[in-house]
Write a structure and sequence with these properties.
CATH topology of chain C: Chemotaxis protein chec
Chains: A alpha/beta (120), B alpha+beta (159), C alpha+beta (206)
Shape of chain B: globular
Largest interface: B-C, 32 and 31 residues
CATH architecture of chain C: 3-Layer(aba) Sandwich
Structural class of chain C: alpha+beta
Number of helices of chain B: 2
CATH class of chain B: Alpha Beta
Oligomer: heterotrimer
Radius of gyration of chain B: 14 Å
Strand content of chain C: 15-25%
Helix content of chain B: 10-25%
Number of domains of chain C: 1
CATH architecture of chain B: 2-Layer Sandwich
Number of strands of chain B: 10
Helix content of chain C: 40-55%
Distance between the termini of chain C: 28 Å
Largest sheet of chain B: 5 strands, mixed
């Protein structure tokens, strides 16, 4: 309960890496999205407890996706997981509603700790 | 085999009688081979961009399809070729990286401008090996008037 | 009017070299972290104004089949960046990161390389952002396995390089074991050069 995650990243390798880390730590990956649009659609369909979100993706970027998901569900728990660690982007993502911002490359503990903090 | 000239990007060269003109690494670039079907003169251009009018720096005419072809034909005329006897073959213009959102890729624009310019100069386009997603190497064997294309990692074949 | 020293071409190239040094340093740190903190060595970045026609040969053999991962960062200050690896290094990288003997041609192998390119080039831009206070929004990475000349030529065409001399920052790197080596090429848009130099000199802390 409270541990269903939707993974969003445009790279299959990163989605697989995240899936492995999450499943090893007792989370259930209920969906994978390869761009922001899929993430929004899957969020509506699956209503996961948590979302990991990349920023640089084709079709729809992560920040736009965060805004759309937050519009649909202001309680959405989204954690950004991106290589883009620029200050302005971190601020924008957090202002859009993300709960945390993890810069790649990251250690497994970093993301697990972030998700644990968000689930409370 | 006598002379070999390697035509680099945004460059062109002409050769007479015997030898080899070669240009390597045609990605979105287009290689344009012209040869005089009667008199043994051949030329090869490796263009990078389609339309010189779109760029403020037009110093290097060999860079653009619309200016390189007339320049090449002129250079060949200096070596004894006659415009009325010229024929062309082109290769390249591929999309190595799939640019999802590009309306018309640079490669496509290059191909179209090459065709257009040749048509305007009334030079018949006898063969083309264009498009796709792999790079090409183009060779012009001056004595035989043969043009071949080799795709990255593939066999050399005549076009 | 104006200090000739600070506006001379050599000085500008020097500033860019330093920018390259710090940026690529950050990029290599990222790469090292991905490889479980394996030591990654980089050579001092080479900044040069090369004739356009020489660019496809910059890595040695224009006909050599290599892996190129391409990202562009458009905007007021634009960069075109390519992360280049020979095939063996690409395979070694996939093996190190994913434990798999996946081919560079298959979807999964490509996905690993795309992510590496993504992270490494973003790290470069992150450092640059910190130094200039600018924000960069790069495109998702794209990959090609083809002749070096074709890859570089295509990048030059996509960058609409109309100049006859192109500014290129080139850094060669290799893991200490030598199993993975490659090059990192950055082509700044020539129109943004003065802006970049000014920002680097007057911007945020290096």
């Amino acid at each position: 309960m409270g541990r269903q995650v939707l993974i969003t990243d445009d790279t299959a390798f990163m989605r697989m890496t995240l899936r492995n880390i999450l499943e090893k730590n007792g989370y259930q990956v209920v969906g994978e999205a390869e761009d922001g649009q899929y993430a929004v659609d899957k969020y509506r369909e699956l209503r996961p407890d948590l979302v990991t979100m990349d920023i640089t993706m084709p079709r729809m970027d992560g920040i736009t996706a965060i805004k759309k998901i937050m519009e649909f569900d202001p309680q959405a728990k989204i954690v950004v997981c991106s290589a883009m660690g620029q200050k302005a982007l971190v601020i924008e993502a957090l202002n859009a509603g993300a709960r945390d911002f993890i810069v790649k490359p990251f250690q497994a503990e970093r993301i697990i700790n972030a998700l644990q903090k968000v689930t409370g | 085999m006598s002379e070999i000239i390697r035509v680099k990007i945004a460059d062109l060269a002409v050769m007479k009688d015997d030898g080899l003109l070669i240009t390597v690494g045609l990605g979105s670039c287009v290689g344009i081979a012209l040869y005089d079907t009667v008199y043994r003169v051949a030329g090869l251009a490796h263009i990078l961009l389609a339309d010189s009018a779109m760029f403020r720096n037009q110093d290097n005419l060999a860079k653009f399809a619309d200016t390189a072809i007339p320049l090449l034909a002129d250079e060949m005329a200096r070596q004894g070729a006659r415009n009325g006897r010229l024929a062309a073959k082109i290769a390249g213009g591929s999309q190595l990286f799939s640019f999802e959102n590009s309306a018309l890729s640079v490669g496509e624009k290059n191909i179209q401008m090459a065709r257009q310019t040749l048509s305007k100069l009334k030079i018949p386009l006898l063969a083309e090996d264009v498009g796709g997603s792999t790079g090409r190497t183009m060779r012009v064997y001056v004595r035989e008037g043969r043009v071949t294309v080799t795709t990255a990692g593939g066999e050399e074949r005549e076009i | 009017m104006g200090d000739t020293k600070t506006t001379s071409k050599e000085f500008k190239l020097d500033v860019l070299k330093e920018m390259g040094n710090i940026g690529v340093g950050n990029a290599m740190t990222s790469l090292s972290q991905m490889l479980n903190f394996a030591k990654v060595e980089m050579h001092v970045p080479d900044v040069s104004l090369s004739p356009l026609s020489d660019i496809p040969d910059l890595l040695g053999g224009a006909e050599e089949i290599i892996v190129g991962i391409y990202i562009k960062s458009p905007g007021a200050v634009s960069f075109y960046m390519v992360f280049l690896l020979d095939l063996e290094s690409a395979r070694a990288l996939i093996k190190d990161l994913a434990g798999a003997d996946a081919s560079v041609e298959e979807h999964f192998g490509r996905s690993v390389l795309l992510e590496v390119g993504n992270i490494v080039m973003a790290a470069y831009l992150n450092a640059l952002s910190h130094m200039t206070n600018l924000t960069f929004l790069p495109t998702p990475p794209l990959m090609a396995v083809d002749m070096a000349g074709a890859i570089l030529g295509t990048v030059l065409a996509d960058a609409h390089v109309a100049e006859d001399h192109v500014l290129v920052l080139k850094t060669a790197f290799a893991t200490a074991t030598g199993s993975i080596e490659g090059d990192f090429l950055i082509i700044p848009d020539v129109d943004s050069l003065d802006l970049i130099v000014n920002l680097l000199l007057n911007g945020a802390c290096p």
